[in-house]
């Protein structure tokens, strides 16, 4: 693979028997691991800016966020717009479309993730109830407007659509359907997967837990081939014990940061839509204690998986690098895509995983 100016330019087999041709290009990793950078499919903002609040004057801040993410080892990301008014969503999508067309550096925007507003009110979590919408084809078309080509993933609760029209239509538009914030039964989830849903949003959170008689949305996803499950590994959203079981059952699991706008800022109290969130030790909560997200970078989750001993180091690395690429249909290395090489080192004595850019 040849990477020039931060982009994959060419993929070709390494010449055999020609040591001169590869002289100076061989790296002895000494037992370390090498990977491409991470891909974050669910990130809500950074450096004090929430993506649903985007305006044209924030183009410069978006560039700073992208550069910050690049320095944090992230190649590409999906800015995530949580539930808000249609006007806010359209305004933010317009800004992101312009930024995506003009951006030249940093982590690249590979599309947008709409998390809502088609969520089950009983599992809305920190999403404001006032802006939730019924899951109808007309409402979905109205929300996407002229931005269907920009939206890569949409999270919805499938049980809200009795017609069965929405998921097949979204699939026709090339949009990945992720199930979440849902009370779907196993039967309702199975129908949604048959209709074309291929993803689950932050597994375990905003959905019923696993039950031996009613596996529900998550249990059905774990038993379904071709379904990828996103998860958060901050020690707060999922118990490490349950996460260990989850990783044994789900071979297509991918890490997300679920990071909020204070990503890159210290702990404290911050404005969040019309409310406030308090960040302590990288975890964000509403005043009533509702878990709202994190302010930890994506690759911190990889370190946690290794430190907690939940999987092999190479498996932990894959959850943030190859697995999210596969979940959105990207090969491990795409021509003309941004890429950086990360070298990972495991200290067995300290039980600590670190990374550095090559």
From TrEMBL:
Needed cofactors: a divalent metal cation
GO terms for MF: metal ion binding; N-acetylglucosamine-6-phosphate deacetylase activity
Residues annotated for Zn(2+) binding in this entry: 115, 181, 202
CDD domains, alphabetized: NagA
Highest rank taxon of the organism: Bacteria
Note on cofactor: Binds 1 divalent metal cation per subunit.
Active site: 258 (proton donor/acceptor)
EC number annotated for this UniProt entry: 3.5.1.25
Keywords of the record: Carbohydrate metabolism, Hydrolase, Metal-binding
Example GO BP: N-acetylglucosamine catabolic process
Entry binding sites for substrate: 126, 205-206, 213, 237, 291-293
Enzyme class: hydrolase
Positions of transmembrane segments: none
PANTHER family given in the database record: N-ACETYLGLUCOSAMINE-6-PHOSPHATE DEACETYLASE
Family from the record: Belongs to the metallo-dependent hydrolases superfamily. NagA family.
Designated name of the protein: N-acetylglucosamine-6-phosphate deacetylase
């Amino acid at each position: 693979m040849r990477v020039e100016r931060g982009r994959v330019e060419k993929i070709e087999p390494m010449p055999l028997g020609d040591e001169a041709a590869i002289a100076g290009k061989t790296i002895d990793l000494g037992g370390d691991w090498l990977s491409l950078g991470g891909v974050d499919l669910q990130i809500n903002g950074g450096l004090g800016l929430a993506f649903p609040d985007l305006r044209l004057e924030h183009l410069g801040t978006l560039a700073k966020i992208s550069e910050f993410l690049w320095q944090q080892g992230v190649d590409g990301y999906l800015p995530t717009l949580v539930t808000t008014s249609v006007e806010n969503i359209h305004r933010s999508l317009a800004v992101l479309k312009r930024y995506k067309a003009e951006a030249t550096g940093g982590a690249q925007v590979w599309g947008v993730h709409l998390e809502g507003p088609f969520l089950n009110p009983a599992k809305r979590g920190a999403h404001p109830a006032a802006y939730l919408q019924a899951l109808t084809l007309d409402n979905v078309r109205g929300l996407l407007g002229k931005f269907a080509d920009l939206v890569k993933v949409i999270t919805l609760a499938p049980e809200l659509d009795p017609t069965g029209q929405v998921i097949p239509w979204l699939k026709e538009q090339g949009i990945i359907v992720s199930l979440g914030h849902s009370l779907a039964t196993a039967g309702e989830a199975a129908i949604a997967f048959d209709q074309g849903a291929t993803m689950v949003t932050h597994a375990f959170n905003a959905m019923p837990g696993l039950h031996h008689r009613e596996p529900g949305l998550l249990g059905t996803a774990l038993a379904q081939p071709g379904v990828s499950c996103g998860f958060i590994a901050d020690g707060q959203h999922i118990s490490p014990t349950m996460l260990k079981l989850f990783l044994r059952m789900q071979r297509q699991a991918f890490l997300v940061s679920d990071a909020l706008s204070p990503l890159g800022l210290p702990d404290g109290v911050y404005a969040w839509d019309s409310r406030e969130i308090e960040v302590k030790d990288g975890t964000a909560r509403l005043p009533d204690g509702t878990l709202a997200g994190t302010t930890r970078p994506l690759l911190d989750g990889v370190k946690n998986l290794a430190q907690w001993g939940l999987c092999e180091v190479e498996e932990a690395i894959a959850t943030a690098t190859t697995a999210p690429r596969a979940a959105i249909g990207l090969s491990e290395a795409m021509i003309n895509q941004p890429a950086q090489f990360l070298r990972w080192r495991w200290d067995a004595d300290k039980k600590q995983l670190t990374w550095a850019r090559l």
